[in-house]
User: Which sequence fits this backbone?
């Protein structure tokens, strides 16, 4: 019988072709070629009507059996190829746990904040409490109440950013120092004694150079009470210097002028890099200038709500960036806020 011979040949060809298939795309082509709606087996089954009537049942059974056989073989092959592809994909994506891990890039405290945190710790040991004051200030708090008259030449020492406000509103500015916080805290707590530390940002309309920035930080310390003397100030500074720069660091005060203190002084510490022997950092003087300080001016005490006949106090203002520059030998303040990771990561 020609149809039976064709079925045998078709079975052999389909089976041999299926065994050689290695991917799902070729398998789909095999299905369409042999058992699809237009496949070879379907075309063969359409010729059953030309057979004698007595042969049709037997040939029909053979066609259906071959179809079931090829469909079952197709399912087995498809399952095998899908598992193989999945295994290959998982193998490609597998994580080799024997490899060393990739360390994550962790954040860290900025150098300025590192110094401020250390400063806060040192002053806390001496009983000072940290408080904050506004960065946007009134002219009165920034200048007038700190003994800066309108025509006082000391105003020229600090180029100021003024804020535009509606007519009739008192002058508003970005504070040029942290000293306005002195008046605010004194007015809140007078006549109680106080010891406070005021850290924060300050702003000055200055040309940016290796030594000056338009925005930088300061910390202000203030103590007010009865019978506070210049000796108390020097003792506070000596303790701060030893804790910040190491045991044996010496302190000296040089006469200076600030409108809000009288007497006023510049504070120097013995160079901790050369132990006072003289080096490039201290310009071979053996001393490093840190910041200004002095006894609170009676006018400032009075403006803060304290009677200068019964109360006295001392105050000072230093820059954490300057402290860090001296301590770590940094020669350009612009590195602090440049976003240059190669600079910042040195202190992470």
Assistant:
């Amino acid at each position: 019988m020609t149809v039976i011979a064709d079925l045998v040949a078709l079975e052999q060809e389909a089976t041999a072709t299926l065994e050689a298939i290695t991917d799902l795309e070729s398998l789909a082509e095999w299905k369409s070629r042999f058992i699809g709606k237009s496949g070879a087996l379907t075309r063969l089954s359409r010729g059953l009507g030309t057979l004698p009537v007595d042969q049709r049942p037997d040939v029909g059974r053979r066609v259906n059996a071959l179809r079931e056989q090829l469909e079952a073989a197709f399912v087995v092959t498809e399952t095998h190829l899908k598992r193989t592809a999945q295994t290959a994909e998982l193998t490609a994506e597998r994580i080799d746990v024997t490899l060393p891990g990739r360390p994550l890039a962790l954040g860290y405290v900025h150098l300025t904040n590192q110094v401020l945190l250390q400063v806060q710790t040192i002053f806390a040991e001496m009983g000072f409490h940290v408080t904050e004051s506004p960065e946007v200030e009134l002219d009165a708090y920034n200048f007038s109440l700190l003994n800066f008259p309108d025509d006082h030449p000391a105003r020229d020492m600090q180029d100021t950013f003024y804020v535009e406000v509606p007519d009739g509103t008192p002058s508003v500015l970005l504070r040029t120092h942290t000293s306005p916080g002195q008046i605010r805290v004194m007015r809140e707590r007078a006549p109680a004694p106080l010891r406070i530390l005021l850290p924060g940002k300050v702003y000055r309309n200055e040309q940016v150079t290796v030594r000056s920035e338009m925005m930088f930080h300061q910390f202000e310390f203030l103590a007010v009470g009865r019978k506070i003397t210049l000796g108390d100030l020097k003792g506070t500074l000596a303790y701060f210097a030893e804790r910040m720069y190491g045991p044996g660091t010496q302190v000296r005060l040089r006469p200076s002028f600030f409108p809000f203190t009288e007497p006023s002084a510049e504070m120097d510490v013995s160079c901790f890099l050369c132990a006072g022997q003289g080096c490039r950092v201290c310009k071979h003087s053996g001393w490093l200038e840190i910041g200004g300080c002095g006894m609170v001016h009676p006018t400032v005490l009075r403006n803060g709500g304290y009677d200068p006949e019964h109360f006295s106090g001392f105050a000072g203002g230093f820059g954490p960036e300057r402290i860090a520059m001296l301590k770590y030998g940094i020669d350009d303040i612009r590195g602090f806020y440049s976003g240059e990771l190669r600079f910042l990561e040195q202190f992470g």
Q: What stands out?
A: The mean pLDDT is 87. The first strand starts at residue 129 and ends at 130. The CA atoms of residues 35 and 42 lie 7 Å apart. The chain is about 40% helix and 20% strand.
